[in-house]
Design a protein that fits this description.
Distance between the termini: 69 Å
Mean pLDDT: 78
Oligomer: single chain
Helix content: 25-40%
Order of helices and strands: HHHHHEEEEEEEEEEHHEEEEHEHEHEE
Number of helices: 10
Low-confidence stretches: 1-5, 59-78, 84-97, 103-121
Largest sheet: 13 strands, mixed
């Protein structure tokens, strides 16, 4: 990274990269260095995506005020920055995002980069809110259905197709392209395909991959660049921990269950139609999913309960019924005192 200023933390690094990437058409070296920085730490991706979101907010503000920011003309960059911020801070939303937007423009001024309104979009990102689903059409013809309270970024080039699942779940219907592998990164796990249908879940360091159609290669402990550049699957299998999944197989990491399981009843991606289905799933996994649909947080306060396993199915609109079923068991108690949090704990035996 350039040494124009000392960068103290991840947010400053994200600001720096945002300025560089949006300073014009980034060359291959800059793209490579930028992607290497993104892949180095999930916190880097999160910080950069936040910068992208701020630019989207800024785009909206400028459109509302018919304003453009440019480095051309007689005004100095710093004068323009100051004059624009004076006008921008009158906008109601500025109190929430003004300081971060100001930081973005300050970095652009310090690095003497043109401050453009529309980002290049590397990577593009998509997010959903609680109980919201979103279908996304990618440029290669692939379709991603983004689950509730989930977040992905998309970065395509002429050699690879990369989607990073920052959190939540996504179902992928991948257009076949044998010359350009499709990679999904989640935590320390990378899924490599050329065309298939599968889902990936990522929450609290638990990663799950389930295949509806075709087959996928799950690679653990590799850098995204290693998997992207390797056209020889045998080399990947020799160098890294891998699993090959076919139809109706599920891979789990960090959940305490077997790494690969066969699904006889639960169908991957049923949540797309508003139904959550589980087969030999931990209570921890189920509640993590439910929290993406519940307006009130649900917490398990007893570690011994998290590993309890269930086979069940219910509609996302029937969360209260699920909690009632759990509460009726002999080992679980659900505490709901009308606060913002519902507590699941071990049933306390009554004294006779």
């Amino acid at each position: 990274m350039g040494a124009a200023m000392e960068l103290k933390n991840t947010k400053e690094e994200a600001l720096h990269w945002h300025g560089l990437i949006n300073s014009g058409e980034p060359d291959a070296v800059l793209r490579r260095d930028f992607e290497s920085w993104l892949d180095k730490d999930s916190a880097h991706r999160k910080a950069y995506f936040e910068m992208e979101q701020l630019w989207c907010d800024l785009d909206y503000v400028l459109a509302a005020h018919d304003t453009e920011i440019s480095n051309s003309g007689k005004q100095s960059d710093l004068e323009k920055y100051s004059a624009w911020m004076t006008k921008f801070m009158k906008y109601p939303k500025a109190t929430a995002i003004g300081s971060a937007i100001a930081a973005i423009f300050l970095v652009a001024v310090v690095f003497n980069l043109p401050a453009t309104v529309s980002p290049v979009g590397i990577p593009a990102h998509h997010e959903t809110k609680i109980a919201e689903l979103k279908k996304i059409s990618l440029e290669d013809g692939s379709i991603v259905t983004l689950g509730a309270k989930s977040h992905i970024s998309v970065s395509f080039d002429e050699d690879t197709r990369i989607v990073s699942l920052v959190g939540g779940e996504a179902f992928f219907d991948v257009a076949k392209d044998s010359d350009r592998p499709f990679l999904v990164a989640a935590g320390d796990t990378i899924v490599r395909v050329v065309g298939t249908k599968f889902e990936v879940k990522y929450a609290d360091d638990d990663i799950r991959v389930a295949v509806l159609e075709g087959n996928v290669l799950v690679v653990r402990g590799a850098e995204i660049t290693d998997v992207a550049r390797s056209q020889d699957i045998a080399i990947l299998k020799d160098r890294f921990e891998t699993e090959t999944l076919t139809e109706n197989l599920k891979f789990s990491a960090g959940s305490g269950s077997d790494a690969v399981q066969k699904l006889d009843q639960a169908v991957p991606g049923t949540w797309r139609s508003g139904r959550l289905a589980y087969e030999d799933a931990s209570l921890s996994e189920i509640i993590a999913d439910v929290n993406r649909y519940s307006q009130r947080s649900i917490e398990i306060d007893d570690e011994s309960l998290k590993s309890l396993r269930f086979t069940m199915g219910f509609k996302t609109s029937e969360i209260s019924q699920l909690l009632a079923i759990l509460d009726s068991s002999e080992v679980i108690e659900v505490l709901d005192d009308d606060t913002n949090t519902i507590i699941i704990r071990a049933e306390v035996a009554s004294e006779e």
